[in-house]
Amino acid sequence: MNAVTETTSEPEVALPRLNEPAPHFDALTTHGQKALTDYRGKWLILFSHPADFTPVCTTEFTAFARRANDFAALNTDLIGLSIDSHYAHIAWVRSIKDSFGVDVPFPIIADLDMKVAQAYGMIQPGASDTQAVRATFVIDPDGVLRAMVYYPMTNGRSVDEFYRLLQALQASDSHKIATPENWKPGEDVIVPTPQTTHAAEARMSEGYDTKDWYFSTKAL
C-alpha cells in the first residue's frame, strides 16, 4: 500500500486591487474612532508597520511625522496601523516625542483582531504570521485605491518617494497625463499615446517634443 504524502500550503493572501474601492475600516485609533469614510474628499495614505517600539518602524514614523504638513498641503491625511494595542500605540507615540523630539500628529489604528490588516493583505505568512509587513496604500478622495507598495520586514520605506508618487497621481488626475520615471513637479510629462493610425500620423505635427509616434512629452 502506497503511503500518501500530504502537502500543506500557506493560505493565499487576499490583496486589494488598484482602481477599486479601498477596503472599508472602522477602527479605534490614538485619535479616537476612525473610519475610511471620514476621509472622503481627501487623499489618504494608510501605512502599516510590524510592531511598536521597533527601530526601523520608529525611523519611518518620525519621517512621516516630519513630512505631515507637506502631505497636508496636498490635501492628504496620514494614518498608521500595527497589530498592537491602543495603549501600546499611545506609549510609543509618547516615547517617540521623549526620545526623538518628534510629535506624531496622525492617528494609529489598533488592529489586535487583524481585521484591517487582513482586508488590506498586510499579513504575509511568508514574512510573519503575527505581524503586518510594511505596506503602504494611497487612497483617493473618492475612496478608490490608487497605489499600494509592500516592503520586507527588515527595510524601511522612503517617505520622500510616497510624497513624490502622490504629486504624480494628482498631476495625472488633473491634467490627464502620465509621468516618467522619478518625475517631479516642474519636469516634462508624457502625453497620452495616440489610439488610431490617423492620430499617430497627426501626432508628429502637434507641437509636442516627440521622439516617436508613441512617445511625446510636454511641459506642464
Task: Give the overall average pLDDT.
Answer: 91
The rounded Rg comes to 21 Å
- What's the CATH topology name of the largest domain? Glutaredoxin
How many distinct folded domains? 2
Identify the overall geometry.
elongated
CATH class of the largest domain: Alpha Beta
Write out the CATH superfamily name of the largest domain.
Glutaredoxin
- Overall CATH architecture of the largest domain: 3-Layer(aba) Sandwich
- Proportion of helical residues: 25-40%
How are strands sequenced across the largest beta sheet?
5-4-3-6-7
**Low-pLDDT sequence parts:** 4-8
> Roughly how many Å apart are the termini?
73 Å
Order of helices and strands: EEEHHEHEHEEHEHEE
Structure class: alpha+beta
Q: What summary fits the major beta sheet?
A: 5 strands, mixed
Strand proportion, as a percent range, falls in 15-25%
What is the β-strand count? 10
Structural summary, described in words:
- The chain is of the alpha+beta class.
- It has two domains: 26-157, Glutaredoxin (3-Layer(aba) Sandwich), CATH 3.40.30; 176-220, Antioxidant, Horf6, Chain A, domain 2, CATH 3.30.1020.
- The chain has six helices and ten strands; from the N terminus they run E-E-E-H-H-E-H-E-H-E-E-H-E-H-E-E.
- The protein has a five-stranded mixed beta sheet with strand order 5-4-3-6-7. A three-stranded antiparallel beta sheet has the order 8-10-9, with no helix packed on it. It has a two-stranded antiparallel ribbon with strand order 1-2.
- Strand 6 and strand 7 (145-151) form a beta hairpin.
- The longest helix is centred in the last third of the chain and has 17 residues, at 159-175.
- The protein starts with 25 loop residues before the first strand and ends with a strand.
- 28% of the residues are buried.
